[in-house]
Amino acid sequence: MSLLRMQILLILTMAGWGVNISLVKVLTEHYDVFMIATLRMSLAALVILLTLVWSRMRFSLRSITASQWLRFVACATCMVYGNQLLFVSGMSLANATNASLIMALGPLVASLLAALVFRETLTRNRLIGVALGFGGVFAVVLSGSGASVAQAGWGDLLLFLAMLSFVSGGLLIQSLARHFSSLVISAIIYVLGALMLLIHTTLFSSLQFTMHTMLPGFWPVVLLIVSGVVSTAICNMFWNRAIAELGAARTSVFQYWLPVFGVGFAVLLLNEPFTFWQVVGLAGILLGTWLGTKRPANVKTLP
Fold first, then answer.
1. What pLDDT digit, counting tens, does each position of 39-49 carry?
2. Which alpha helices (DSSP H) does 28-119 contain, by range?
3. Lowest mean pLDDT, pick from 82-86, 261-265, 281-285
4. How far apart are CA 196 and CA 81, in angstroms?
5. 163 within a domain of the structure (yes/no)
6. How far apart are CA 197 and CA 85, in angstroms?
7. Domain range for residue 18?
């Protein structure tokens, strides 16, 4: 695929992820949070699995070792099961604008965790970036009317934990990527994660899968399908393909567009206000992420 076409797909992916935040916010008004997570991830898993079958990629489950299965389960637990339960629960309490800004911390947190896990040197610029990024989020969370960490910030805290869960699972994928294609990894992770959510909803929720709970209305169902199929399955496959073709470093730069689209859709579709402190928070997050993910000049990367 040409570089220009891949860049366009990445911009569309950020738009898909950005609008998804507003879609999930609307869905929390029509569905139980466990139902949203289960149905969205089931749709995503089905689409990715069908794409794997359509690609006719040769692959055998018997070739997966026990240690690799443990990594797959860990990734599914962090990136799908835990991430979705925290994300949807947080979206039921927080607004879409705050969620967009919190999710924008993903590259910064990933860079910080990678530095700690792989014992990279935490440079002055990276530490300043961490301070600016988290400072921007606190400026947004604590600037709301009657905001407090214990009360109004609870939904924001759940969203941060959802982002942290997803990023943590992403670190485990690196070892799997040496042996499996991105499509195979995505298919296994989303199928396992969807099964975990289905079991969780069945065992630990009083909610039942009935026509009323699954089909509460025409537009909620349409939004659910768009969220699960387009924003989750298709956008994640585009993202994984971009990583395979451009590399993780060049691909991650496009995540700067996520808060722009996320905040824009929240203002346009949900009529959420965009305050001065949110502007300050957005600037702090973008600048902090740029500094926090920028590699030192003397560090060489593989081509």
1. 999 999 999 99
2. 33-55, 66-76, 83-91, 96-103, 106-117
3. 281-285
4. 6
5. yes
6. 8
7. 3-293
pTM, whole model, 2 decimals?
A: 0.81
Distance CA 234, CA 231 (A): 6
Number of domains the chain is built from? 1
Whether 118 is covered by a domain: the verdict is yes
Asked, for residue 255, whether it belongs to a domain, the answer is yes
Helix (H) or strand (E) holding 61, with range, is: none
CA-to-CA distance for 97 and 102, rounded, in angstroms?
Answer: 9
Asked whether 38 and 198 are in contact (CB, 8 A), the reply is yes
- The three-class DSSP label of residue 148 is coil
3-state percent helix, strand, coil for the chain, nearest multiple of 5:
80, 0, 20
pLDDT bracket for residue 294 (50, 70, 90): low
Domain assignment present for 33: yes
Contact call for residues 174 and 247 (beta carbons, < 8 A): no
Rg (CA), the chain: 19
Token digits of residue 158: 């759940």
149: nearest Cα among 140, 157, 159: 157
Q: For residue 174, what are its two tokens?
A: 């690196």
Where does residue 60 fall: left (phi above 0), alpha (psi -120 to 50 degrees), or beta otherwise? beta
Average pLDDT, the chain: 81
Question: Per-residue pLDDT tens for 223-261?
Answer: 999 999 999 999 988 887 787 677 665 677 677 788 888
Rounded CA-CA distance 74/37 in Å is: 18
Question: What is the separation, in whole angstroms, between the first and last Cα of the chain?
Answer: 18
